[in-house]
Amino acid sequence: MKDIRNCNTSSFHIQLLSKIIDIDQYPFIKLMIINNISENEYEDLFQLLTQLEDTFQQQKEEGLIDFTSLLVRFAGMLNEKLDPNETIFALKKEGYYPSLMDEFTKIIAAESKYRGK
Asked: Which domain of life is it from (predicted)?
């Protein structure tokens, strides 16, 4: 019974906080909440992003100019609860991994242009 009360209290506190914070300014956090991402899933995502960032920097130093394979890897390893493009744009807006997210958004824009969308 105590766990239910704690859960209800936490839920109530989150509702109160959501009234004073413009959640639309935090699209990544909003995605995490809306898609019911657990703490472990959140940590897994950041572990993936850190690995991709490291690979991205290494490949840039080696002179690679096409990073599509990293985007494909991100999309393939992303939690199934999340949409890859939506997640990338949310991460970019909140300033996470800026150079990597810039590259991913460039690739997405080029793909959309190529497909005529």
From this structure: Bacteria
